[in-house]
Amino acid sequence: MRILRRPFGNPQTPMFRNIRYYRLDTDWPGDEEALCQLLEQAAFKPCGPLTDRSSGWMPVADETDLLARRVNGADLLKLRSQSRVLPPAAINEELEVRIEDYKQRMGEAPSASEKRRLKVETRDELLPKAMLKSDKIWGYFDLKEKLIGIDTATESVAERFLNRLRSPFGDLNVRPLQFAQPMGDFLGKLFFGSAPAPFALGRECRMQDVADSSAKVRWSEFDLDDKAIRDHVASGMRLTHLAIEYDNVLGCVLDENGVITKLRILGMDDDKDIDNDPLARLDAEFALTSGLLRSLLGDLKKELGGYA
Questions:
Q1: Global pTM exceeds 0.90
Q2: Domain locations in the chain?
Q3: pLDDT digits over 243-266, tens only?
């Protein structure tokens, strides 16, 4: 991929950097307390000595034990995943030592089944000594729209979040958010200067050759009104990602599947005047972010004929 870039400003990033949306067709708990009690069934527990990975729900802030926080008609959630770092190369290196020891003791090479047993034994002995690493994924549920938003651009990470949510819910009927009309058509409309208010064209886009999916180009921090850039799409390249600004307060890159990346709130400052209370600041930022995203989705629904 060819990347073309010019220096430009760097607005502050909010708590959600990316959003993949899913529609929920399952009932959701009616209040914060009921949701917290449900999530307790799948709360985070550290990896055991022989456990590769552990995932579960954790308090949304250090100042509270709550596993969910309901603010402005939306529930904030936080998933923590912990895994043991045990590279295959480390297992194979120790396995070679054990195979050589077996040969010396038995006078013959181990059979295929014996090699498998030695590998399992090696892994089980090394795993408790492996280092631990954690990652945390924000997510939220919009009660009115019945949408789950997950802070990731990667489908596999979103699936991990949803799978852990299925554990306490049992049956969780979700599907990726789609609109009645193709998002790609809307991106093309914006790109060629027909942006309806309150949408405006940003300064980044990505294109892909229709005939050759490996042929891609990305323009970053450029004036996309430039004819030389637009001619690429006019001559047959497909627009896959487009930076937009919404209502002069929210910026992001929107892809042809409706996934949001590089989310930022324009002009957002770190508000230190909210009683110096970290939980109050979290509530304020979540209320602002979820409210803006709800407005953005509402206008996308209007432009794209509603949800599919």
A1: no
A2: 2-16+178-303, 23-86+131-176, 88-129
A3: 999 999 999 999 999 999 999 998
